[in-house]
Amino acid sequence: MARMQSILMIEDDARLASMVSDYLQANGYTVAHAPDAQSGLNQLTGNTIDLVILDLMLPDMDGLQVCQRIRALPGATGQTPVLMLTAKGDPMDRIIGLEMGADDYLPKPFEPRELLARIRAVLRRKVMDAETSHHIMQFGSLEIDRDARRVSVRGQECELTSYQFDLLVTLAERAGRVLTRDQIMEAVRGRELEAFDRSIDVHMGRIRAAIEDDAKNPQRILTVRGVGYVFARQQD
């Protein structure tokens, strides 16, 4: 039997929280309520929560700060979807909330059916992201999207040729293993690559220039003298 999805509502309006809890429970969710930010963060830590409904105006802490605290939590807890509620009508609040890591935003007053629809949409996106996450490799602030053939560091896209992208993926898929130049070339052979008219070392230099904070002191792609290269498992 599938586990019922759990929602944590951090809201100081007890009447609203009770109404929303009853409605969501009638639609198949389990709902926990926290009347303030600190008790909400305490409940989130150590419990399985699928989504947080977060009021922007709380008695002990601004909702934006709470969202930041959630995103700073370790592991999957820090990725818990957050749907923000606010009585404010300023569009800038919505923009700031989304920039702070909220997944959606709903102004008060709202129709319970709209809240339910927003919750379902956010949770569907979470499932879809989980199903496709294996196509994206993450090493600290470095992200390699194999499907889109894109590489970014701290959200900034890195410019790589198709050949350099394949070389980087070859190393990343074997993170922690020392590869000789011949092994690297063999691993990418047979793909639609440019001709091997330049040395691996030149391409590695260009990849480092694109993804390293300091290409002269690389921390992602390390040279093993006399052997080849190794892609670091642990990165910032």
Describe this structure in words.
This protein has 236 residues and is of the alpha/beta class. The protein has two domains: 6-134, Rossmann fold, CATH 3.40.50.2300; 140-231, Winged helix-like DNA-binding domain superfamily/Winged helix DNA-binding domain (Arc Repressor Mutant, subunit A, Orthogonal Bundle). 39% of the residues lie in helices and 21% in strands. It is built from eight helices and twelve strands. It has helices at residues 14-26, 37-44, 63-71, 91-99, 112-132, 162-172, 181-188, 200-211, and strands spanning 6-10, 30-34, 51-55, 82-86, 104-107, 136-139, 142-145, 150-153, 156-157, 178-180, 221-224, 228-231. The longest helix has 21 residues, at 112-132.
Strand order of the largest sheet: 2-1-3-4-5
Into how many domains do the coordinates divide?
2
Poorly predicted runs of 5 or more residues: 190-198
Residue fraction in strands: 15-25%
Radius of gyration: 23 Å
Helix-strand makeup class: alpha/beta
What distance separates the N and C termini? 40 Å
Please work out how many helical segments DSSP would assign. 8
